[in-house]
Amino acid sequence: MPTEPKLVPPRAKGSSVARVSAAWYVACTSRELGRRVPVARTILGQPIALFRGEGGAPGALLDRCPHRNVPLTLGRVTDRGALECGYHGWRFDRGGRCLEVPALCGVAEASARDAVSFACVEQDGYVWVWGEPGVAPSAQPFRFPLLSAEGYTSVRQHVVADASVHAVAENALDVPHTAFLHAGLFRSDARARNRVEVVVRRWHDRVEAEYVGEPRPEGLVGRLLSPKAGVVEHWDRFLLPSIVQVEYKLDAAHVFVCAAMTPESDYRTHLYAVVSFKLPIPGWPLVPLLKPIALAIFSQDARVLRRQTDNIHRFGGESYVSTEIDVLGPHILRLLRAAEQGKLEPSDAPKERRFHMDV
Ligand code: FES
Ligand SMILES: [Fe+2]
Q: What is the mean pLDDT of residues 215-225?
């Protein structure tokens, strides 16, 4: 039997990086995976070779040839959908089975020649890989809501941040930083505050914050999406293992941002985001206006996240002081820890808590 790869080395002392390996993660987009050339990706520190096997279905093998350790991504994909190592030509199918050792005569198959494989499926235009090798998944990949819903415009974007899944998820769902880090772009003025009610609902596998009585953000993004001012309905959500959602409604306008995060390593996280929106006016003309603004906002986030990570390393570990208005971060960390340890206690009714904050 091939030996299973170990995950990245144990966490450094004091680190809060939780690793949830029993989960589906987006490895790449469907478009990135062609028919001929394997694609190299890393998930949870495990180098993976992606390729299209028989019939075009995607496969994921540990990027290490069992023969002499050469990366399988140096090879090519044959006409019949086998991944052929570039060194001596061993060929593997989607399940990692060694189909052929060129020039070897009359010797029976041996499973020791098989490559380590990961479960792999294609859904919603993404190639998803199960985070543990050699394991049958216990769930289906997440489905992006509204991706092809009628009346909605959906835009995809892939971005990378040098920070942990927890830090990236907290950042994506954190309200207080928007008035400072994104002043003018998202919320306009840190001093012009409005008191809103926050309702936090916790389930065993997700957490949601609802903001009640929030005026439409005055920044550029808010004005573009809804020129008319008013009170918005706003929800932020984290769903295990790695989904973040931000949802806004104002009259007929509905904006739904949903991103699947993939931990390349403890401190590098990919975000595969789908922004779906329905507006009283056609949405497509807004895309060229909104995309650069959204990317500018993200680059401010990516910069601060990188500095946060650098400082965590500089000081040899994390140290957090949280208040009530760090609404979701502590819950996200707790959920990730519980999932990592397999300690999720299913619950139907959410636990709810209400308080006020100034946004
Ligand atoms: S190293 Fe892959 S076939 Fe020899
Ligand atoms: Fe931000």
A: 75
User: Given this model, what pLDDT does residue 116 score?
Assistant: 96
| Position 189 pLDDT exceeds 70 | no
- Report CA(155)–ligand 2 centroid distance (Å): 19
The pLDDT of residue 1 is above 50: no
pTM: 0.92
319 and 178 co-located in one domain: yes
Q: Which protein residue has the closest C-alpha to ligand 1 atom 3?
A: 88
Q: Is there a domain that residue 4 lies in?
A: no
Residue 269 sits in a domain whose CATH number is 3.90.380.10
* 232 CA to centre of ligand 2 in angstroms: 19
- Domain membership of residue 246 (yes or no) is yes
Ligand 1, atom 4, residue with closest C-alpha: 88
Report residues near ion ligand 2: CB below 5 Å: 301
Residue 260 lies in a domain: yes
Length of the chain: 359
Tell me the CATH number at 73: 2.102.10.10
Ligand nearest to the CA of 100: 1
Cα torsion for 30, 34, 38, 43, to the nearest 10°? -10
Percentage of the residues of the chain whose pLDDT score is greater than 70:
93
Say which DSSP state 340 is in.
H
Ligand 2 mean position, distance from CA 160 (Å): 14
How many domains does the chain contain in total? 2
